[in-house]
Amino acid sequence: MKTIALVAGGPKENLADLTIFNQREIMWVGIDRGVRYIEEAGFTPANAFGDFDSISSEEHKKLKKDLPHLSTYPSEKDQTDTEIALEWAINQRPDQIYLFGATGGRIDHMLANLYLLMKSPSTLSKIECIDRQNHITLYGPGTYKVKRKNELRYISFIALTPDVVGLTLEGFKYPLKNCHIRLGSTLCISNELIYEVGTFSFLDGILIMIRSRD
Q1: What is the dihedral of CA 161, 182, 104, 74, to 10 degrees?
Q2: Is Transferase one of the keywords UniProt gives this record (predicted)?
Q3: Are residues 114 and 161 in the same domain?
């Protein structure tokens, strides 16, 4: 299974423990200051993107030496470093993309990063945004299974399009049947599984599933 782990430079106190996610075929890719987070976790980045204005000139020189294909961009551009890196990752056609360091800090960056998960409809459920407290995934219409994870007790569903049509939740504390969820609704916040495996399905729209710790 080919996995790309993108690590952006969000506040370190929000960063998940990267060592938990390391596996044999994972490719670690830094986004600006995220390169330092990868190295601090004991891993070697395979690539890096950004203007690197948040690291020292000495660190940047070392990075260019260690990574021949380092992608450096000007600070004034039409895309964020995270968007550039995510587009690159999608084009590699991996089985899974993890995005770390993309939440916390500035709300404008956090909201933009969450909407970036909609970059490619065919990759929605392949991209997971992870921080110390939350696992965030986007889904298009379909039927999906959800396994119980005691460390991620709460499960919320939020519409990212004007309407999510026909949402059905089975195996949850608060079940739903063919429900119409509008953008801005808080109906599906803080649900929980009552069985080891539950399912959710919907007919149209895009929603975000957030699994959270206490």
Answers
A1: 20
A2: yes
A3: no
pTM of the prediction? 0.87
**b/e code 29-45 from CB counts within 10 Å (16+ = b):** bbbbbbbbbbbebebeb
pLDDT in tens, 116-144: 888 766 666 689 999 999 999 999 999 99
| CA-based end-to-end distance of the chain | 31
* Nearest by Cα to 131 from 84, 98, 85, 88: 98
- By residue range, what is the domain housing residue 34? 3-132
Q: Name the pairing type of β-strands 3-7 and 71-72.
A: unpaired
Residue 152 lies in a domain: yes
H or E stretch covering 92: none
**Cα 14 to Cα 134: distance, rounded to the nearest angstrom:** 10
In tens, the pLDDT along 83-113 reads 999 999 998 999 999 999 999 888 998 999 9
Residues 79/58/38/209 CA torsion (nearest 10 deg): -20
Cα distances (angstroms) measured from residue 103 to each of 41, 107, 108, 209:
19, 8, 10, 15
Does 20 lie in the same domain as 102? yes
Do residue 14 and residue 47 come from a single domain? yes
- The reply to whether 137 falls in a domain is no
Same domain, 112 and 198: no
